[in-house]
Design a protein that fits this description.
heterodimer; A: 131 residues; alpha+beta; N-terminal domain of TfIIb; 4 strands; elongated; B: alpha/beta; 7-stranded mixed beta sheet; two-stranded antiparallel ribbon; 6 helices; 26% helix; AlkB_tRNA_MeTrf/Diox (chain B); S-adenosylmethionine-dependent methyltransferase activity (chain B); transferase (chain B)
């Protein structure tokens, strides 16, 4: 599961969903893998304003990845004068699209429920007593 | 009415979820062509739109527009695994009534041939509420459900028929082992064929719109296409 996904996921429990503590989910015992993907500069540029930057910073720290800058890069930092993708954009592509959680758990910061990730797919089905 | 009372989560587990899990790969091999209205809905979205495909099945709609980002979800792990192959999108296993997404966050959502698998009126409205709730103000959801009115289909249901039905899915036996297949049983079935039954609630004209309203959504467009009712819904402004 690519890291970009975590920007759009929270706890599945109704009581947690709207709480700030449930987002982002916290990876635990995560096995990371790099899944190569063709870079689409426009896609990355479009996703940048959608990113919850603080959450992405938390995630990279928790996963032991290089720290992100304090502030999100501006759109101008993603392409050089000739319109070519910059290293900043390439790094975002690597982080968001190629860095993936192969297995592990995603933990809710509100209720502490753990969701399993297996073979790159997170499972959010709740046991019936938690629904 | 006794039959109605035992419908709900456990009923769907047995008559919907377990079946899809078993027929996943065969089902997927028959689902590859996007329907035109859904294709158009997805293609008209501005590049960079972020949305959900709730009950994405094998993910055939994930392949339509690579400049949007979709998080697909399905109750069936086997189908989710097939759907996960479609880049740049993502797929998780989740239940429509307990979606793992922030409310009021998404530009759009689609839920195609999913809501009709919920087995009580309350659960169907709840499912649509779940879809509509995921949307930003002004976000749009496209919902498709099977119609009761499908006289011209091979199933031939019409207005007088019952709306809660079990629909067979026949998984053919291996052709290799049965070269004489056309001779047996007129070519329709075979001893090694396996039939699974899935629960469906067939929607009546107007019923989908009613459910959208009951789920605090407003219908901005709706229609009928090839045995299905569809509606495009927006969250009601408060």
């Amino acid at each position: 599961m690519k890291l970009l996904t975590l920007n759009f996921l929270t706890c599945a429990r109704k009581t947690c969903k709207s709480t700030a503590a449930a987002f982002p989910l916290h990876p635990k015992e995560a096995e990371l893998e790099q899944v190569e993907m063709d870079m689409n500069p426009l896609f990355i540029t479009n996703m940048l304003p959608r990113l919850e930057w603080e959450a992405m910073k938390t995630l990279t720290t928790e996963l032991g990845l290089p720290n992100l800058p304090a502030e999100p890069p501006s759109a101008e930092e993603l392409a050089d004068e000739s319109g070519e993708p910059t290293q900043t954009l390439k790094d975002l592509h690597t982080l968001l699209m190629e860095t993936s959680i192969a297995s592990g758990k995603l933990v809710c910061g509100n209720c502490e429920h753990e969701y399993a990730v297996k073979e790159g797919i997170a499972n959010f089905l709740l046991p019936s007593h938690m629904v | 009415m006794a039959e109605v009372e035992y419908r709900g989560e456990n009923y769907e587990e047995q008559h919907v979820h377990t079946v899809y899990e078993q027929i996943a790969s065969h089902f997927s091999s028959t689902r590859y062509k996007p329907w035109p209205i859904i294709e158009r809905f997805l293609k008209e979205l501005p590049a960079g739109s972020v949305g959900l495909d709730i009950g994405c099945g094998n993910g055939k709609y994930l392949a339509v527009n690579p400049s949007i980002f979709l998080v697909g979800s399905d109750r069936s792990h086997n189908l989710a695994e097939i759907a996960a192959q479609h880049q740049p999108h993502s797929v998780v296993v989740a239940d429509i009534l307990d979606l793992p997404h922030q409310p009021h966050c998404f530009d759009f959502a689609i839920s195609i041939a999913v809501v009709h698998h919920l087995s009580t009126p309350e659960r169907r409205v709840q499912a649509i509420r779940s879809i509509v709730e995921s949307l930003k103000p002004g976000g749009k959801a496209l919902v498709y459900v099977w119609a009761l009115e499908q006289e011209s289909s091979r199933r031939g249901w019409s207005e007088q028929d019952t709306q809660d039905v079990m629909v067979p899915w026949v998984m053919r036996g291996s052709k290799k082992d049965h070269g004489d297949r056309h001779e047996a049983n007129g070519g329709h079935s075979h001893s090694s064929d396996k039939t699974f039954h899935r629960y469906y609630h067939l929607y009546r004209k107007g019923e989908l719109e009613q459910d959208v309203h009951a789920a605090d959504g407003c219908v901005i467009d709706a229609g009928y296409e090839k045995d299905n009712w569809w509606a495009i819904a927006e969250p009601t402004q408060r």
